[in-house]
Amino acid sequence: MTGQRIIIIGGVAGGMSAATRLRRLMEDADILVLERSGHVSFANCGLPYYLGGVIEQRESLLLQTPASLGSRFGIDVRVDHEVTAIDRVAKTVSVRELHSGEQSVERYDVLVLSPGATPVRPPIPGGERMLTLRDIEDVDAAMSALSAAPRTALVIGAGFIGLEMVENLVHRGLEVTLVELGDQVLPPLDPEMASPVAERLLQAGVDLRLGTQVTELGSGTATLSDGSVVPAEFVIASIGVRPETSLAVAAGIELGERGGIRVDDQLRTNDPSIYAIGDAVEKTDAISGEQRLIALAGLANRHGRLVADAIAGTRIRVRAAAGAAVVGLMGLTIAATGWNEKLLRAKGREIRVIHTHPASHTGYYPGAQSMSLKLVIDANTDEILGAQGVGGDGVDKRIDVISTAMAGGITASGLSDLELAYAPQFSSAKDPVNMLGYVALNALEGLTRSVQWHELEQELAGGAVLIDVRTAREYAEGAIPGSINIPLDDIRARIGEIPQRRLIVHCKVGQRGHTAVRLLAQLGRDAVNLDGGYLTWSAGRASRALVPQIP
Question: Is 507 considered catalytic here?
Answer without folding.
Answer: no
